[in-house]
Amino acid sequence: MTGTARALDIRQVQHAGDHYVVANVNLKNDLLRLHWTNPTTRQPYLTFTQLQERLRKEGTPALFITNSGIYAPGFRPLGLHVEGENCWCH
Question: Into how many domains does the chain fold?
Fold first, then answer.
């Protein structure tokens, strides 16, 4: 998620003794983006800090960042990954 959200709702939830942070985004009003690899280096982002730095340089600071899936060795996403207009299925 980047930019200034108009409909971002973040709250803490407890269920069955476990604690979760839940973020709801209204996709009619805000942009939700997935980032797997750095477009310059073509290398996967290995830390949230790497992604935050890239977004800062682009002028689109993140409002929140989370791991969005399950990854295989080599930091490749498993299953369907959609980023912009590109789709990968591993």
Answer: 1
pTM exceeds 0.85: no
DSSP letter (8 states) at residue 39: T
Tens-level pLDDT at each residue, the chain (90 residues): 445 556 678 899 999 999 998 888 888 888 888 888 898 999 989 999 999 999 999 998 788 888 777 778 878 777 777 777 777 676
Domain that holds residue 65: 31-89
- β-bridge mates for residue 14, sequence order: 19
Supply the DSSP string of 53-88, one letter for each residue.
HHHHHHT--BS-----S-EETTTEEPSEEEETTEEE
The Cα–Cα gap between 87 and 59 comes to 25
In a domain, 22, yes or no: no
CA–CA dist 25, 27 (Å, integer): 6
